[in-house]
Amino acid sequence: MTKELIEYLLSEERHGMKGWDFSYLKGRWESESLPWSYEEFVNEYLKEDSVLLDMGTGGGEFLLSLNHPFQLTSVTESYEPNIQLCLETLSPKGITVYPIKEDDVLAKVPSQAYDVVLNRHESYKETEVKRVLKENGFFITQQVGAMNNSDLATFFDSDHKSDFPDITLEKAEKRLVDEGFEIIYKNECYPKLKFFDLGAIAYFASIIPWEFHDFSVLKYLDKFEELEKILKSKGFIESTEHRFIIVARKK
Predict the structure, then answer these.
(1) Which end of the chain has less neighbouring CB within 10 Å, N or C?
(2) 54: β partners
(3) What's the confidence (pLDDT) of residue 18?
(4) CB neighbours (10 Å) of residue 21?
(5) What residues pair up with 116 in beta bridges, in sequence order?
(6) Which CATH number characterizes residue 150's domain?
(7) Cα distances (Å, whole numbers) of residue 6 to 1, 98, 220
């Protein structure tokens, strides 16, 4: 491995991320499509007069794409830069914004207030989701599962273990059923993720420390040498993602 390549990998590791925006990797990676459409499920169960809560809305980009009446819409967000963005862009439209701390989740949100609760890649407590939903209300959640990128993480560290072993479809379904929800739809998949250059991997691993524990380029130079050979041979390096979706109704 050349000195120039090592310096390049180190610069990618140092690049960092602002917010949760992967546009820096555009054209440098490719992910298989999921066998379902989260948006289609949302549009199926979200009616024009539904009172809506979007958990972990980010900057509200997906939420706004739904064109749901603002006065019937609330959001939660815990990431400080996104909270400010929500207060600046969503609040003036009449959308209710609940800034939260990760450990209180829905503590500020009123009980039995919502017809539909959305949650894409945000943590949640089943008891709290049940509390804020109206009777017969719908909970639609898509999650990143416990095995996400575990094959690539294990390639770097043979002792790798998931930080979130309980995030699987089977366990999530059981917790919801135990809380009295009816499961309307469920699915789970393991789509392939391809990287087309080594720098993309150095960058990706450095910004997801809960999947790539104690990662550093210098620590894993020997692994990058192996990856360089794979890249030259196959043209890409593959990892495996883990996603699942549940649509549930409060009985």
Answers:
(1) C
(2) 75, 118
(3) 65
(4) 10
(5) 52, 138
(6) 3.40.50.150
(7) 7, 44, 11
Listed in sequence order, the residues at least 6 apart from 64 whose beta carbon sits closer than 8 Å to its beta carbon are 90
* C-beta atoms surrounding 228 within 10 Å: 16
Question: Which tokens go with 77?
Answer: 């967000």
Provide the angle, in degrees to the nearest 10, between the axes of the packed helices 221-234 and 198-207.
130
Burial of 158: CB neighbours in 10 Å, binned 0-12, 13-18, 19+: exposed
Domain that holds residue 108: 3-250
% pLDDT > 70, the chain:
98
Query: Helices 221-234 and 3-15 sit at what angle, rounded to 10 degrees?
Result: 100
| Cα–Cα distance, 142 to 123 (Å, whole number) | 10
pTM of the model: 0.90
- The total of structural domains in the chain comes to 1
Tens-place pLDDT, residues 34-59:
999 999 999 999 999 999 999 999 88
Q: What is the distance of C-alpha 137 from the center of its chain? A: 23
The least confident of 95-104, 137-146, 182-191, 204-213 is: 95-104
Taking 3-state DSSP, the helix, strand and coil percentages for the chain, each rounded to the nearest 5, stand at 35, 25, 40
pLDDT of 21 over the 90 cut: no
CB 207 within 8 A of CB 17: yes
- In this model, does residue 19 exceed pLDDT 70? no
**pLDDT at residue 22, rounded to an integer:** 86
- Strands (DSSP E) contained in 105-235 are 114-120, 133-144, 181-189, 192-195
Distance of alpha carbon 181 from the chain centroid:
23
